[in-house]
Amino acid sequence: MRFFTEYLTFKTQKHREYVNITDRVEAVLRKSAIQEGMILVSAMHITAGVWVNDAEDGLLADIDEWLEKLAPFRADYRHHRTGETNGDSHLKSLLVHHEVIVPVTKGKLDFGPWQQVYYAEFDGQRPKRVIIKAMGE
Fold first, then answer.
1. Can you give the residue range of the structural domain that contains 96?
2. pLDDT band, residue 116 (cuts 50/70/90)
3. Would the pTM of this model clear 0.85, i.e. be above it?
């Protein structure tokens, strides 16, 4: 089994932002030359996440609204007693998770219809990394 690792860095323009990174994941897979296996995509920060879903603007707006309802910004989070102001960002990250694993078949991401990989930023405007690790033969 072979492994190939690459890192992406994001510095989003907004505090909360969703970035389709499918093309970048595919580029890493091509560089890896892995034909059969899997690829891990993982946010390396606790206020960010990664998911697989449809690349449709209305759905992204719905997801953003849903996350804000479930984990709204509030001044009274206990985490804020530490001097931080991003308690809601941590909770949003828990809801979408921090990583995905995508199967690789014949050198391609083996997605279902419409599936894309997204980086979700919940406390942006500063550099954050994502690790992409291809594993297989």
1. 2-136
2. very high
3. yes
